[in-house]
Amino acid sequence: CIISQYAAEMLQGSALVLCMDVGFSMSNSAPGEESTFELAKKVLQKFVQRQVFAETKDELALVLFGTDSTKNPLDQDGQYQHITIHRHLMMPDFGFLEEIENQIHPENEQADWLDAIVVCMDLLQNETNKKKFDRRNIAVLTDLSTEAKADHLDVIIKNLQEAGITLQFFLPFTMEDSEEGGGDADRGGPGHPGAGKGPTREQKNGLDMVKEIMQCLDEEEGLDEIYTFRKAIEQLCMFKRVERRPMAWPCQLTIGSSLSIRIVGYKAVSLLLKEKLKKTWITIDAQTLQKDDIKRETVYCLDDDNETEVQKDDIIQGFRYGSDIVPFSKVDQEQMKYKHDGKCFAVLGFTKQNLVHRHRFMGSQVIKIFAPKDDEHAGVALSAVIRALDELEMVAIVRYAYDRRSNPQIGAAFPCIKRDYECLMYVQLPFAEDLRQFTFPSLESKKFTPSDTQLSAVDSLIDSMMLVEKDENGDYKDMLKVHHIPNPAFQRHFQCLYHRAVSPGSPLPPLEPWLKAVLEPPEIITERCQAPLEEIKRKFPLVEVQKKKKLKTSAQIFEEPNDKEAKADEEEEYNLADIAGGSVTSVRQLTHRIEQLLSNKNTNYYMKSLKCIKVFREQSIKVNKHSMTLISKDEVQGSTVSKNEANQVTH
């Protein structure tokens, strides 16, 4: 798929020249719509972004044509004018992205796009003759508005073939638009600006030359390398993660003690964890932006007044066991590790596939198991195992250990037979400790039993939201291709990273519309489920229930609280004076409760005890109709007030 397919091949080492038209015709656009130049620049930016974030080791160059000035080694005798080599072959970086963002602008001249290709060929020949590349490619982004001179077209094609240089073209219209004479792909039709005119005569002539070149370079698939700008943007908008060569895991598949088959494992599915992205973050100096200017030191100190420093050799690990900490030295930790014989893929037994439930799958990877390419006997033996499992609808339960340092796992090896290959698919299964057993009450309730019409409404909603549909042959196909949906966190991460690199002072951009659309249900599903949803609202009316607040009595307040009630009670305020009268009939009871409150070492309980004492005194005055005095030595041993002094102060 356009440059993105090419990018995958670039892992082997490739050289690419991006050849972009910046002439004045590229600035044409319908009112309020993006110009052809802006679309071409987006293709350029998004491809270079993918290359930078994928950390390829390949080299890119940029040639501009239609520039006001001329800067290329073929500039002699008035030939190859208005063509500029902006960047020579080198690995892409953020500096290149900044140049594209800030230095590439539409200019006021026009240049022959065939001359630009010749300059790109010369650049590739001169800058790759001492280097080894698996592929050399030129990607041309133009609107073909300038009449190209076809005098030396045959020579150009011959030189491209001899040098092994491939071409790709990115245009504002499709080949079908040229043949039909209708509106072009990027300027006409639904959703595109400037509907109506279609390609000009110069553009049609230029497209005929492009077809001739591409068919001469590759008769069967040459025309597949001609794309529109918008199609390219759609396919390049997704950031690619760093491409890595698949790492083989050689091992022996053992069945019992006498049968052993050589195998090689490859990760087919591996979770891109957030922790993996964290590994790329480093701490740098805010002024110099250099990692080497920062030095990290870890110091251990005792929790005492002097914060006495403790040497690293005097520290050991401790395992929290309940309220105690059990110390473990490095020797203990080494001896505690589970010891086994190293990497293994041993079959423990076989079982029916329907007994290995999908909801029990766990782990962060799926491993495909093949026989080595150079071992015919292993291939025959493994094929026999795979086909036997497939015919009997069985799976192998295996013991898997990656190496001597890793803990063993238990998993299931499923047979997988495709048109081009066959293999075993290993998926990790849980141990007993990994299983979680939950008991929930039954959903069936006599009080809330759904009616037949309610059940029918829910069935209709489920049917309307089915993510499969029948094609013209009557076969079911997926409407939502999950394996094509990118991780939004990953995409957002690199979107912000790119923006911050090229625009350090501006706020981060909002989520890109295409990514937001990916996270929404398909439009056809949204439309289909509207009527069933309205039916659900009618069949299941919602009624707001108002909860009445209950007043607490003193008996409820003074009950012995449990832990949860006590915690909730700490934040609750109540007026004891409002409920004391008539509810507290026993002086002993209230005294006992006050003592209980004081015995709790909590400020809230202490303040409550003061409120109780205050109400106790006020109610005592009302009940006894006597004045209240201070507490004397005769009443409480800790008091410093004599009986005469206490009687002098009355309430």
UniProtKB/TrEMBL annotation:
One Pfam family it belongs to: Ku_C
An annotated GO BP: telomere maintenance
Annotated signal sequence range: none
Annotated GO MF terms: ATP binding; damaged DNA binding; DNA helicase activity; double-stranded DNA binding; hydrolase activity; telomeric DNA binding
Cellular component GO terms held in the UniProt record: Ku70:Ku80 complex
Matching SMART domains: Ku78 (SM00559)
Main location group: nucleus
Record flagged with keyword Cell cycle: no
Subcellular location, record wording: Nucleus
Ku domain sequence ranges: 307-446
Location of the region described as Disordered in the Swiss-Prot/TrEMBL record: 178-204
Enzyme Commission number(s) from the entry: 3.6.4.-
Family affiliation: Belongs to the ku80 family.
PANTHER family: KU AUTOANTIGEN DNA HELICASE, X-RAY REPAIR CROSS-COMPLEMENTING PROTEIN 5
Protein name: X-ray repair cross-complementing protein 5
Origin species: Mastacembelus armatus (zig-zag eel)
Lineage of the organism: Eukaryota, Metazoa, Chordata, Craniata, Vertebrata
